[in-house]
Amino acid sequence: MKQTLFFGLLLCYSALLAQTPEYDTPAAPSSGGAWARLEVENGDSVYVMSMRPFKVSAKRKFKDFDEQRQYFLYTRAAKKVYPFAVQAIAMYDDISQETADMKKRERKRYLRKEHRDMKADFEDQLKSLSKTEGKVLIKMIERELNEPFYDVIKDTRGNLTAAYWHNLGKIWGYDLRQGYSKGNDLLLDDVLIDYDFGHPDWWYY
To answer: 76-91: buried (b, 16+ CB within 10 Å) or exposed (e) per residue?
Structure first.
């Protein structure tokens, strides 16, 4: 079930700059070997460097053991499935571009071939996913694509296939029509904020 849902999808720095005035002064190497911009303001010299965003948070307090356990299940699952999500999203984007100008019949043939290839490549790895790992994988993909998994399957496999997996997914506790919505699962939101898919400024407004 879980791996087939993933196959449906397979078919189917911005930097934080220091807010200081800029001056036309030579750059200078920092002590760590990187390069920094030297700025002078009111007679004071300051080295300015850009850095990637990072999250600063207090030590998490959980209301009970069950919440703590769920958080760490999400954390462990996210680390495991993130590489799969990155590949799936990249493949989906590639497929969308490749098939954009194809006729309907040609596109269906192309998608069937991709389905066979991806199944051969990923089936053994995805068979081992737990229910939580499957959920986190789907939510990662929905979050990045900004559309429900149901719509992704429908776009790549058709209405009947999407409806079939939606109904079957309910048995496993998935609602493929729901999509990812920030705030529905605060624990999962906190875990996923560490995974930016190459958009490090996305969740740091």
So the answer is: ebbeebbebbbebbeb
Residue from 34, 17, 53 nearest 198 by CA: 53
Give whole-number Cα distances, 110 to 36, 96, 116, 138, 147, in Å. 49, 11, 10, 23, 23
Over residues 59-71, the pLDDT tens digits come to 778 899 999 999 9
The full set of domain ranges for the chain reads 2-13+64-192, 17-50
Q: What is the pLDDT of residues 152-198, one digit of tens each?
A: 888 877 888 888 888 888 887 778 899 999 999 999 998 998 887 76
SS3 71: helix
Distance CA 29, CA 35 (A): 4
Helix (H) or strand (E) segment spanning residue 136 = helix 131-145
